[in-house]
Amino acid sequence: MTKSILHKADSRGQANHGWLVSSHTFSFANYYDPSRIHFGALRVLNDDMVKGGMGFGQHPHDNMEIISIPLEGDLEHKDSMGNVAVIRQGDIQVMSAGTGIYHSEYNHHKNEAVKFLQIWVFPNKKNVTPRYDQITLQNKDSLNQLQQILSPNPEDEGVWIHQDAWFHLGHFEKGKTSHYQLKKPDNGVYAFVLEGDFQINGYDLNLRDGLGLWDLEGFDLKAQSENSKILLMEVPMHI
């Protein structure tokens, strides 16, 4: 029997540091809710806004797969592997922290905010060699359909991580539908609404609502308003 958990947007943990405004779907930093530690291998889903000229100074990570998805503006990245890059709306960035990495993330512009998702996924291999990658997505590939943007396979579409996880983005016109079939039977899917409104498995989802589904083979989704965008994150439920 299908299991589900609904996280409405206004139930998320909030942090306002002035230069950074962040909403935490799962426990993070000073926000702690024992019922919201993670969804399977999905550990962090932060919805961040960083003011112009500001950002996160150099800091360490290890043994975590870290994905950044800009929603508005440009994010400047530097790391201890020598990578210097700017990721923009339409890009997706991935880091395998592995044995350890230092990096910084700053708003690339002085006078406008950058908004992005910071996502952490538990890896299925520890102490791997740190790795960085980013790609630019083709918007046409997500129009009224689900576009794969992440998988476990370096030869597959999108970026890849050390985990049996698949991410998809979809940009739908009102009334359009799509079916998602899970890749692995023991996985679950966490759906996160980026814009507009959707209906999934009897749930009405609005802007920044999250819905976790597991113990199912697949599900249908329907856009309830124009210009509706959604991110689906399929991850193992047992870690």
TrEMBL record:
Its cofactor is Fe cation. The keyword Transmembrane does not apply. The keyword Membrane does not apply. It comes from the Bacteria. Residues 12-121 form the Pirin N-terminal domain. Keywords: Dioxygenase, Iron, Metal-binding, Oxidoreductase. It holds the Pfam family Pirin. GO terms for molecular function: dioxygenase activity; metal ion binding. Binds 1 Fe cation per subunit. Fe cation binds at residues 59, 61, 103, 105. Residues 149-235 form the Quercetin 2,3-dioxygenase C-terminal cupin domain. InterPro entries: Pirin, Pirin_N_dom, Quercetinase_C, RmlC-like_jellyroll, RmlC_Cupin_sf. Gene3D superfamilies: Jelly Rolls. PANTHER family: QUERCETIN 2,3-DIOXYGENASE (PTHR43212:SF3). Belongs to the pirin family. This is Quercetin 2,3-dioxygenase. It comes from Aquirufa nivalisilvae.
